Input
Amino acid sequence: MIVEKATGAEHEKEADRLFGALAHSTRRDIVRRTMESDYSVSELARCYTTSFAAIQKHVALLEAAGLVIKSPRGREQIVRGSTARIEEARELLGRMESLWRDRLDRFDQLLGTTNEGDKPCP
Output
Protein backbone atom coordinates (compact mmCIF):
# COMPACT_ATOMS: atom_id res chain seq x y z
CA MET A 1 0.00 0.00 0.00
CA ILE A 2 1.01 3.65 -0.19
CA VAL A 3 3.55 4.39 2.53
CA GLU A 4 5.15 7.77 3.22
CA LYS A 5 8.65 6.20 3.53
CA ALA A 6 8.46 4.72 0.03
CA THR A 7 10.83 5.99 -2.65
CA GLY A 8 9.60 7.89 -5.67
CA ALA A 9 9.91 4.76 -7.80
CA GLU A 10 7.90 2.74 -5.27
CA HIS A 11 5.20 5.43 -5.25
CA GLU A 12 5.07 5.31 -9.04
CA LYS A 13 4.75 1.50 -9.09
CA GLU A 14 1.98 1.67 -6.51
CA ALA A 15 0.15 4.39 -8.43
CA ASP A 16 0.47 2.36 -11.64
CA ARG A 17 -0.95 -0.73 -9.93
CA LEU A 18 -3.81 1.22 -8.36
CA PHE A 19 -4.84 3.31 -11.34
CA GLY A 20 -4.12 0.53 -13.81
CA ALA A 21 -6.65 -1.60 -11.95
CA LEU A 22 -9.17 1.23 -12.16
CA ALA A 23 -8.52 1.85 -15.86
CA HIS A 24 -11.14 -0.67 -17.01
CA SER A 25 -14.84 0.16 -16.73
CA THR A 26 -15.80 -3.36 -15.60
CA ARG A 27 -13.26 -3.24 -12.77
CA ARG A 28 -14.48 0.21 -11.69
CA ASP A 29 -18.01 -1.16 -11.65
CA ILE A 30 -16.93 -4.19 -9.59
CA VAL A 31 -15.32 -1.84 -7.07
CA ARG A 32 -18.50 0.27 -6.97
CA ARG A 33 -20.71 -2.76 -6.46
CA THR A 34 -18.50 -4.28 -3.78
CA MET A 35 -18.33 -1.00 -1.88
CA GLU A 36 -22.14 -1.13 -1.62
CA SER A 37 -22.47 -4.83 -0.76
CA ASP A 38 -20.53 -8.10 -0.60
CA TYR A 39 -20.77 -10.33 -3.67
CA SER A 40 -19.57 -13.80 -4.46
CA VAL A 41 -17.47 -14.03 -7.62
CA SER A 42 -20.27 -16.01 -9.25
CA GLU A 43 -22.83 -13.31 -8.33
CA LEU A 44 -20.55 -10.70 -9.86
CA ALA A 45 -20.17 -12.79 -13.02
CA ARG A 46 -23.96 -12.81 -13.46
CA CYS A 47 -23.92 -8.99 -13.56
CA TYR A 48 -21.86 -8.84 -16.77
CA THR A 49 -21.99 -10.26 -20.27
CA THR A 50 -18.34 -11.40 -20.09
CA SER A 51 -17.34 -14.89 -19.01
CA PHE A 52 -16.93 -16.08 -15.43
CA ALA A 53 -13.20 -16.50 -16.11
CA ALA A 54 -12.92 -12.88 -17.25
CA ILE A 55 -14.62 -11.67 -14.06
CA GLN A 56 -12.30 -13.86 -12.00
CA LYS A 57 -9.33 -12.18 -13.71
CA HIS A 58 -10.77 -8.71 -13.07
CA VAL A 59 -11.32 -9.57 -9.39
CA ALA A 60 -7.78 -10.98 -9.11
CA LEU A 61 -6.31 -7.79 -10.56
CA LEU A 62 -8.41 -5.65 -8.18
CA GLU A 63 -7.33 -7.84 -5.28
CA ALA A 64 -3.65 -7.48 -6.24
CA ALA A 65 -4.12 -3.71 -6.24
CA GLY A 66 -5.76 -3.91 -2.82
CA LEU A 67 -9.05 -2.46 -4.06
CA VAL A 68 -11.09 -5.52 -3.10
CA ILE A 69 -10.68 -8.21 -0.48
CA LYS A 70 -11.63 -11.82 -1.21
CA SER A 71 -12.48 -14.24 1.54
CA PRO A 72 -13.83 -17.79 1.47
CA ARG A 73 -17.38 -18.47 2.61
CA GLY A 74 -18.16 -22.13 2.19
CA ARG A 75 -17.46 -23.04 -1.41
CA GLU A 76 -17.63 -19.45 -2.64
CA GLN A 77 -15.23 -16.53 -2.65
CA ILE A 78 -16.82 -13.37 -1.25
CA VAL A 79 -15.58 -10.04 -2.60
CA ARG A 80 -15.88 -6.73 -0.77
CA GLY A 81 -14.43 -3.33 -1.54
CA SER A 82 -11.56 -1.94 0.50
CA THR A 83 -12.56 1.45 1.88
CA ALA A 84 -9.02 1.95 3.21
CA ARG A 85 -7.55 1.51 -0.26
CA ILE A 86 -10.09 3.86 -1.82
CA GLU A 87 -9.09 6.44 0.81
CA GLU A 88 -5.42 5.93 -0.12
CA ALA A 89 -6.30 6.53 -3.78
CA ARG A 90 -8.15 9.72 -2.84
CA GLU A 91 -5.14 10.92 -0.83
CA LEU A 92 -2.78 10.13 -3.69
CA LEU A 93 -4.96 12.10 -6.10
CA GLY A 94 -5.02 14.96 -3.60
CA ARG A 95 -1.22 15.01 -3.46
CA MET A 96 -1.05 14.96 -7.25
CA GLU A 97 -3.53 17.82 -7.46
CA SER A 98 -1.50 19.85 -4.96
CA LEU A 99 1.69 19.19 -6.90
CA TRP A 100 0.15 20.36 -10.18
CA ARG A 101 -1.48 23.41 -8.58
CA ASP A 102 1.92 24.42 -7.18
CA ARG A 103 3.50 23.96 -10.60
CA LEU A 104 0.81 26.05 -12.27
CA ASP A 105 1.21 28.77 -9.65
CA ARG A 106 4.96 28.89 -10.31
CA PHE A 107 4.29 28.98 -14.04
CA ASP A 108 1.94 31.93 -13.52
CA GLN A 109 4.64 33.69 -11.50
CA LEU A 110 7.18 33.13 -14.27
CA LEU A 111 4.79 34.65 -16.77
CA GLY A 112 4.22 37.62 -14.48
CA THR A 113 0.52 37.02 -14.08
CA THR A 114 -1.66 36.85 -11.02
CA ASN A 115 -5.26 35.88 -10.40
CA GLU A 116 -7.80 36.09 -13.20
CA GLY A 117 -8.86 39.69 -13.75
CA ASP A 118 -5.68 41.16 -12.24
CA LYS A 119 -3.37 43.15 -14.45
CA PRO A 120 0.00 41.59 -15.27
CA CYS A 121 2.91 42.98 -13.32
CA PRO A 122 5.18 45.34 -15.33
